[in-house]
């Protein structure tokens, strides 16, 4: 692949371009690239990320063709593949944007168009920035006063359980934090290689990170028949099986669930933490949907709070990193790439290593840090922006709750489709019946990929096949967001229903579609 | 390290917290952590990043003590360790901040306080964002119209040599882009493991990334006696030596140099590209200081332009990634974490793999992308903001040029210190004579670390030891930024001079300090 050292090279200390060009013209034509699929880092090759995978690339192509005037059986592509609220028309929270704009252009601090509480927040943030500018690098862990605000927020959220701002690290979205912590934890070779337990279905950042870091992925299956609950017996099964070929050291939890939308009960979290304590597992709790709980009988419990309530034996020993983000909740500020992690019980020397690792990337985007600050320190009852802020927040969350309900209802009205309640997060993950003939036809692609491709081609609706998240063998799903406006979402769901009926018709003309046919698979 | 499977565990499917707490109380006390220095990812452990290393942590401690009222022989800590312009008092470019603030809070588009050209820029950027919001994820490669603006900028910069926006990728600062490209390139085991050629002295992101990715670092030494020029013979030597134990596949260049401040001549760039062509090396050219050229007899030439001027044999085959950033130049917007890379001649399949890899992190911060857009698409001659923009830009660059000169002059007036001209970038990297007695005393730390620690403790000035960047054995340096205001920089340099004289006195009372004593080392 390399041409190796050229014997001419040694004598040619100073070369002439023209001469060299003539000499290498023929060689040039035969040159192989240095970076090819053969020489590419194999761990990069192994990475898969369905949320922006082949189907989304295809959706982009179709969108471009539409723009160029190419006729399609629909007038727009609806990207229900990714939790990208603003792209679906959700409006930013005014107060958040006011604060960030003030930080960005402090001359506005003199403008009467901005409320005092927003100005005070901005001034406080700027005081924490080098040279009072959003343009300075922050400390690698983030702006100090923002870390303090986050700790205060966590304390309040967890009903007074103390939070130390020294344990808070700002991140570039939650993904960056998750990647950094996993990076620390991967070591060993062969059967002592780090195993990482992840839920199936999972958010594919986890499997992608595990591939990239060459860790061992340990699947524990969520219980679809039981609203995607986490079953402790299944955790034990997965752990024991994995112990044979790797060293399980990390347990990842997504609560509320992505793509599955379940909200874990306090009892379940206790069991998980007890299990992690027993088996010496580092717990990573992805809690980016902590503000997205819709079912009236569900409540968000942070892993940290539950850990503390289990007593000092647990709270002083279980190593826990929990993650939050500006991208979800009621703000949906994905583009700012803001987030934080709280890390408990980490060895102080390792903590120094983490800070060192983070310092190589210098700091998370400071405007994202500012956005995070507004989320953890929103207007208070007596402040000028309180009323508008509360109205906007409730409006977003109220609409999401209604859309969660509507999505579940419409999908469950479709023969051959079964959707668990969307208790939280922003996604429905219905199980779909795919007729055997379609399964046979799929061949080179996963049957649910075939399904989603056809859905896209026929309706312009872009969703992600369940195979991108993982699912019990023989079951098929897709993930769709509940983010389009209620009217649009209703149309979308009706289109999905009509498509599904056509699909069933096409592939099983003789066979009457039976509701929940494949549900048994996940009940085993 | 792991307690292993607990025999109780199997029977205890549903556990009681109180019971478990009592049972494990004693075990709890003896628990070992999961993540310790022993189990930490060894590649993370191997990472070093001097720019925010031990001396900067110490500077932070001293700063905190000062704030608490603890007396020190100085009244403030001056952080000349990092190219963080705003933290050193540089003011943001008004136009840039106006555009980003408008994007952030589009209600301001109706405000008469903002000029029309800024509004037009903001509207164009928002048109490119999903839902016309900075809060949407962009495509993994960045906002399309920003990529187009970048391509247009490169074309203009390179006197018409075409740039294709499909080759442009927005990044989270340049560091993120550099890391991503290196990640692709690392493969092979043993003597076929990827070797990465880096200049010595280097910016330690490179060595850190190489450690993290477990690639092989190949040092080529810049010629200190010749203004830190890159010598092609030295490249060949380093390549040949490395060939014995690894597969050199990547050649990294920093131009203008960091920490060394040299600006490469066109001839030198031609030689480097010819060498890369000959030896089949992927070229990574770090050009984040392309706007920071101060010497009247120097000019920035992009690797891309030179490659094209060498003719199609080269321009159609040499694989090249070049990097730019919002953090340097005349804007110094580090906190926005904006940047881009242009990638030439990459295998299309590998490109798809790159996009897949980037998509896992979703997108670079969109506000940073907006900042990057302003840099590549500044006000034009006929536009409202042109005069103020040009004044501000010239003021920053003019001041930097003066400070570059002053720094070189004052440092060269100090006996036992020798500083090459600061032709570009933002740093001086003087060689310092360290008396043998001080070298002996240093023992467990590098002698220049001892020097910098003492400088910090005695004067409050924080600079980074040369050992953090790499240097010829037996030579000692430090890197300092030229970013403080001219008045402050002058005081700082005088303090450095006085400290250096005291240091020489302390460690070599009998020996008259001889100017350039250790210079010979780098002339070998």
TrEMBL record, chains A, B:
Keywords: Aminotransferase, Pyridoxal phosphate, Transferase
Organism classification: Eukaryota, Metazoa, Chordata, Craniata, Vertebrata
GO molecular function: L-alanine:2-oxoglutarate aminotransferase activity; pyridoxal phosphate binding
Cofactor dependence: pyridoxal 5'-phosphate
Class of the enzyme per the UniProt entry, highest EC level: transferase
UniProt-listed Enzyme Commission number(s): 2.6.1.2
Protein role: Catalyzes the reversible transamination between alanine and 2-oxoglutarate to form pyruvate and glutamate.
Pathway participation: Amino-acid degradation; L-alanine degradation via transaminase pathway; pyruvate from L-alanine: step 1/1
Catalytic activity as recorded in UniProt: L-alanine + 2-oxoglutarate = pyruvate + L-glutamate
A single GO cellular-component term on record: cytoplasm
Occurrences of domain Aminotransferase class I/classII large (ranges): 117-495
Superkingdom of the organism of origin: Eukaryota
InterPro entries in alphabetical order: ALAT1/2-like, Aminotransferase_I/II_large, PyrdxlP-dep_Trfase, PyrdxlP-dep_Trfase_major, PyrdxlP-dep_Trfase_small
BP term (GO), one: L-alanine catabolic process
UniProt protein name: alanine transaminase
Subunit and interaction comment: Homodimer.
Family of this protein: Belongs to the class-I pyridoxal-phosphate-dependent aminotransferase family. Alanine aminotransferase subfamily.
